[in-house]
Structures are given as C-alpha cells and as structure tokens.
Amino acid sequence: MQYYLNEELLHKFNLFEIFVTSFLIIIFSMFHFYNILNEKKKYYYLNTGILLYLFGSTVLFISGNLITRLDLAPSKIIWILNSVLYIVYQVFILLEWKEIFLNKEKLDYDK
To answer: What percent of the chain has pLDDT over 90?
Structure first.
C-alpha cells in the first residue's frame, strides 16, 4: 500500500519497512538469548547469526539513502561489509546445523 500511495519509495530505501521488520526480529532474538540464560543453549548459533546479521544490515539499510549519495568507493565498502555479514550469518547457520545433526547423540533437541 505504501508503494502504491508513494511511488518514490520504489527508487529509494523504505526506512519504515526496514525498521519494522528487522527491529521485531532483533527484539525476538534478544528475548531468546534472555530465555536461554539458565537453560540448555538451544539454537544458540542460529540466534547469534540472526542477531549479528540483522543488527548490522539494519543499520546499513536504514542509512542506505545517505550511502547511495556518497562517492562510489565508500559506498562499495559498505555493501561489501553487508556481504561479509551475510557470510558470517551463513557460517553460524552451518555451525548450528553441525550441532544438531552431527552431534545428535549428545544433544536432545526433541525434549
């Protein structure tokens, strides 16, 4: 609906959408960390990856309209940083996968 009412949003970053979607997931991720403080570390690596990537990419995308006005070299470094954050996120997903499926005898995720 926002894009229909304001067609200029098609050519720049929609700050409201970025903030609302990412901020809620970041809050839920922090709640999960709080809930597992005294318990078994269930989905710890996955949650860490989500928190790191979403926090970093949210800051980058919220400042995206400003970054696109910068010179090409600094903005390129910033988008490379976003790519590195995404790779780190994928590594945390891999670590969680290894925890669940390769150490299935030790971990008891079903209970």
So the answer is: 37
